[in-house]
Design brief:
With about 425 residues, this protein is an alpha+beta fold. The chain has 6 helices and 27 strands. Strands 1, 18, 19, 20, 21, 22, 23, 24, 25 and 26 form a 10-stranded mixed beta sheet that branches. It has a 7-stranded antiparallel beta sheet with strand order 8-7-6-9-14-27-17, with helices on one face. Strands 3-2-11-10 form a 4-stranded antiparallel beta sheet, with helices on both faces. The chain is globular and about 55 Å long. The two termini are about 30 Å apart.
Amino acid sequence: MSKKVFIAEQETLLEVQEQVEKLVRNLVPDDAPIYGMVIHEASDLNPSTRVEYLGANKDFTPMSMNMSTHAMNYGSWADWDWLKANVPVMCNWDGGIDYFLDPDDYTKKADGTNSDAANIDYAGDAMAIVKKIYKKEYKVGNDRYVYFCERKVDDDFHAIGFNVLGKERDYMLIPMFYGSIDSNGKMRSIAGQWSCLTASGSAADSATGKAIGTAEQYTAIQAASSKALFFGGALTNTLADICILLSKSTDSQTAFGSGMCSTYVEDKTQHYGTKINTVIGGGQFYGSNDNKSFNKIFHSCVMGSYMLWQRDPYMLLINGRIKVSPDYTYDLTGAKYLDTGVNLAKNGYYATTQVVKDFGAVPNDEIACSSATGYCDHTWVNAEIPAVSLRFGDCADGADVGLWARTLSRVAANAWWYCGASKLLPAPAAA
């Protein structure tokens, strides 16, 4: 049976806000600061001014991307331990780390010798570490408060995105490259490979003659490891919020790069304007504003390139009602998912959200915005079907894409050139 979300009274939320501010001021040691922000979702639609810093970062200078040199200016964030822990690695099928990569040249190991980042015969994948972090999030009216800390300050801070089927993980491994399916039917994150579906198009054109919908992508992910997951769910919400924190902006394309959002061509032989997975230099982040280049966020081109929608079955729209899976439970009916109480009925740009415990913010349609205001990213909706979420965007959608873009208008079996998927790996669970 689906669980229902109950929203606290505003007086309770104000009390919680006061207590968190007290912790920020007095109780948290310097080696585990609380970083925070409030997003004034309704009163300010300007993406560059609606974010207010709170906590240890109150007077920080945000990060900013130089689109000409493609280099990130880290502002006041350069020494954040959590950010420094985000490094590229080669890992085995089940998420164990084999070795570290050179963060500025993935073709090399950290020791300078040649790596396996483009070796299709390597028994594993090129992934990037995302260290566990604790998050507290709530709404006061239409202001969304978000706090992060590297330790569990109290019971209101949760490791959102790091709970895998009831077991909290010390880190998660996000894909450095778009998911490809190898000759053994395994979903991979390896350079030099076409991502799934970009070389085919419709189901009838695929190499096997079969559709590559959600079920087929899940089979490929599980063929690589029974522990592997879709890259989506609560972790992508947490990472998107950290991007807002770092950039002090809700416009991810302006802050981190526009990626490949406008490369589409209506030609199967040109792979519809998509490209083969490529090693990208420039370190942890690489941004551009030409609308045709691979970009990357946290060493992942999947987050910054907007080449292919990424299947995210941990969020569903069941006949207009959003249901989510906070712990990566996989159920395309949504029967085992959390009922958020949020209904969506129309396409649009959303400026406001509802906070869902242990999952993060989901869109609501209280206040509309545009590709230049609010969260700046489009949400497509079909409230008449059971829809599986697609996240981030594809190369035909221009300014509509971004870290908060979603398609909630396709059934699970839908298969087309733009319906990609990538792999997420949890750290091995403690005994």
